Amino acid sequence: MPLTEKDGLIQWTRKSRSERIREHLIWVGAAFLFVLAARYISGQTIWIFVLDAPRQAQDFISRMFPPDVRYFNRAIGALWDTINIAVFGTLIAIVFSIPIAILAAKNTTPHPTLRAMALAVIVGSRSVNSLIWALLIVQITGPGLFAGVLAIGIRSVGMISKLLYESIEEINREPIEATLATGASRAQTFVYAYIPQLMPIFVGITVYRWEINIRESTIIGIVGGGGIGFLLNSAINRLAWNQAVVILITILATVIVAEWVSAKVRAKVT
Amino acid sequence: MVKIHGLIKEYPKGPQALKGVDLTVGDGQIVALIGPSGAGKSTLIRCINRLIDPTEGSIEFNGTEMTSLSTRALRTSRRTIGMIFQEYALVERLSVMENVLSGQLGYVGFWKSARRQFPQDVVENALKLLKRVGLSEYVDTRADALSGGQRQRVGIARALVQQPQLLLVDEPTASLDPKTARQIMRLIVELVRERSLSAIINIHDVQLAKMFTERIVGLRDGVIVYDGAPADLDHAALTAIYGEEDWEADTDSGEPAAAEVGSGE
Amino acid sequence: MSNQTQAAWSKPPLIKSPVLRYLVVAGVLVYIVTAVLSFGINPARIARGLGRAGEIFGAFLRPDFISRGPQIWEGVIESIAMTVGATAVGVLISIPLSLGAASNISPLPVYLLCRAFLVTIRSLHVVVLAILFVIMLGFGPFAGALTLVLNSVGFIGKLLSEEIENIDDESLEAVRATGATWSQVVVFSVWPQVVTRVIGISIYRMDINFRQSTVIGLVGAGGIGAVLDTAMGRYDYNTAAGILIVIIGLVLGGEYLSSAIRRRLT
How far is CA A178 from CA A185, B71, B91, B159, C206, in A? Predict the structure, then answer.
């Protein structure tokens, strides 16, 4: 009630009293939380190192120049590996996501227990970053490209399955009814009514995930997953900033190209 | 052909959609099912081919009790019941031909259908039907490239390629303009007569129903309140079906105020 | 199959030219083979690793939250502190930045400058940012928090500036027509139209920041990820499993909370 009467005059305020009090309380609470967080972080920080930061930054920026242009050859070689990690990670994910998404969607799952299991797989895969997955997998397969592919793949399974099963649940029911009404079996209905409706969405999801996987695979080498991230890590460890900057530029270009390709393909399929 | 007795449908939430419907449709008969929205028309025809499972009652189709069929037997029965939908219910990303051929899915094995291999006579029949509904030039066109009237023609061809004995038609004209609506109704009725099929047509447009069918059944709140010839559908009958309204003050648009009267709950 | 009858029909293939069709198939096969060979999959190494795989999966059945309990707790608190601090600072920086990066309310030079800045920070992966900050500022949550701030600014800046560009032009004109100044236009027309989105995006970003805070610890930027890295380095799989379960639980909780709040907003 922003209108109140006082001394015979009707007064207008933007918000009522209780609204204002509630809003103030939210702000005070948020500010309090922020101060707590800031204090904690500052307690954990060695400020001498922080004060040193500008000098450090200056140091490694000066070391970046001139960039070691010949290093592009190495970077491009590693880039090929990186792209392969993204492509095969996505492929593995596709193979597993389709059945998992079918089990996880309310309208296609054969049994609620299977649905719960599929959802558990999706949740587990999605909640853990691919870098952490890589950390685990490297222990099993040893460092290298294969570990990178598996890490990217495992994480993507959850991501693709989630988007896919949500689209299955939102599918247009009418064509499915129509197909069932002709006497088609469940499997036939899947081929004739579900797949054609889902195909463009599926391609979109996959390409989008591939784009993200390109980004992820550029850094998966930092924890032993192979590819260009491995070079970056070793360049930084050797303080070879003139090489690191070359790698960063290569990554930047790759990410931009991947983004462009992904946007083009997605615009085309819809 | 179809004998419905004591049909009751209760949805988990909400009131009874059908409260004991008895309806018999003879061979070669075309029945128009009219009534306000929410009266249970769609539920009724979907119970016949069990897209919706009825709660109680019996539905006999050609001597088969539909309500107790196994999955496999239900598929066999569904093959002989064609269905046409309001929003056409085409699979938009499939071509016209694939949509029409999907009417044969009940006859063809899974792998053959997945590879789009249909018997030669079916393909010929499908092409003949497409010619009959005037879509010969659109065989490999994707369904989402067609206009509303064209899509409904594909829907009709899909239903007929099944070689049905009964046609269930759910608001075939509700999404079409008045001219196309008449053309589509005429086409459906012609094709049904040519093949001497039976048909149950849900339709909210009373004028179209009177024009094209020989028997009108009025449904209100899940109960049949009128069953008779179009000519007998008078003021009193319309009031029984749709509720009070000045039925004589009909405009010339051919559209009675039925749609506005809406659900009489 | 009688090909003579005119009535034959088969589904038209996706690629019309058969030569091209087979070339594409062959090309894909060649790519798959070369790529798989380049992975250098070493069966002997994997066979040895499988024993360890059993150990790791076994550890998930017997996760250990206790023996490193204080460190795990510390890591969780650190992650949450980084999330809260970075989200708040990130939102504050990105609001003026996204006003600048919206073409419908900013002059061209300002627009280009803000856009260029956003593109640059968005192109750097959060882990790369973390590495750079750790080198500059030393290990710990401060480097992590700054990483998340910069990453948040890129994210919020992009979404919010697009949101501002999509607001109703007429209402902008209407306020301008009253003779309002630029800042009045922002306060009376732009802000009311985007404020719910600002809150929505911020909460969504908070959720993402927490996820990110679990991983940047692997390169020394503090948080629960650092504790996980230590446990893995010690081959202490039971503790690692415990930490992973904690991460999964917290990430899920955060996601649930974030979407619940956002649903209430609209």
Answer: 12, 17, 9, 9, 45
Going A44 to A49 to A52 to A56, the CA torsion angle's sign is negative
For A218-268, what is each residue's pLDDT tens digit? 888 888 888 888 888 888 888 888 888 888 888 888 888 998 998 898 888
Local structure of residue B262 (DSSP, 8 states): -
Task: Supply the DSSP symbol for C187.
Answer: I
Beta bridge partners of B24: B3
A40 with C50: Cβ contact below 8 A: no
Question: How close B254 comes to chain A (CA, Å)?
Answer: 29
- For residue C239, the domain's CATH number is 1.10.3720.10
3-state helix, strand, coil split of chain C in percent (to 5) is 80, 0, 20
Query: Which amino acid, C78?
Result: E
Kindly state whether residue C190 falls inside one of the protein's structural domains: yes
- Which tens digits make up the pLDDT trace of A50-64? 777 788 778 878 887
Does C56 reside within a domain?
no
User: Nearest CA to B114 among C14, C12, A191, A193?
Assistant: A191
Name beta bridge partners: B64.
B61
Q: Which of B81, B94, B168 sits opposite A196 (nearest CB)?
A: B94
Q: Inter-chain contact C8–B95, Cβ cutoff 8 Å?
A: no
Two structure tokens written together for B131? 């010619």
Chain C residues with CB-CB distance to B97 below 8 A: 9
Instruction: Please give the domain boundaries of chain A with CATH numbers for all domains.
Output: 3-63 (no CATH), 70-269 (1.10.3720.10)
Cβ atoms within 10 A of the Cβ of B193, count? Answer: 12
Question: What are the structure tokens assigned to C43, written together?
Answer: 């069966």
Q: Residue range C12-16: average pLDDT?
A: 78
Instruction: Answer whether the bond into residue A66 is a cis peptide, omega within 30°.
Output: yes
Among B99, B100, B120, the strongest candidate for a mutation testing the C interface, having the largest count of C CBs within 10 A, is: B120
Judge whether B158 and B100 are in contact, CB under 8 Å.
yes
Q: Give the rounded distance of the alpha carbon of A226 from its chain centre.
A: 19
Residue with tokens 């009940």: B106
Contacts of A183 in chain B (CB under 8 A): 75-79, 105-107, 162
Q: Which residues from C are below 8 Å from A145, CB to CB? A: 38-40
Cα gap C254→C206, rounded to integer Å: 9
CA distances from A8 to A4, A5, A11 (A): 10, 6, 9
Strands A3-6 and A9-12: antiparallel
Q: How confident is the model at residue C233 (pLDDT cuts 50, 70, 90)?
A: confident
Identify whether C8 is part of a domain: no
DSSP conformation class of B233: -
Q: Of the candidates B51, B78, B91, which has its C-beta nearest A193's C-beta?
A: B91
For CA atoms A27, A28, A31, A36, the dihedral sign is negative
Cβ contact, residue pair B116, C10, below 8 Å: yes
Would you say C221 and C142 are in contact if contact means Cβ atoms under 8 Å apart?
no
Chain A residues lying within 8 Å of C211, measured CB to CB? 127, 129
Interface of C with B in 6-65 (CB under 8 A): 7-12
- Please count the residue pairs, one from chain A and one from chain B, whose beta carbons lie less than 8 angstroms apart: 84
| Tally of structural domains, chain C | 1
Class of domain B1-80+166-172+198-243: alpha beta
Point out the residues of chain B with pLDDT beneath 70.
Answer: 248-265
Peptide bond into C18 cis (omega under 30): no
Report helix, strand and coil shares of chain B as percent, to nearest 5. Answer: 40, 25, 35
The residue type at A70: R
Task: Note down the domain range covering C155.
Answer: 65-265
One-character DSSP codes across C127-160: HHHHHHHHHHH-SSHHHHHHHHHHHHHHHHHHHH
Domain edges within chain B: 1-80+166-172+198-243, 87-163
Cross-chain Cβ contact A184/B105 below 8 Å:
yes
Q: What is the distance between the alpha carbons of residues A235 and B188, in angstroms, rounded to a whole number?
A: 75
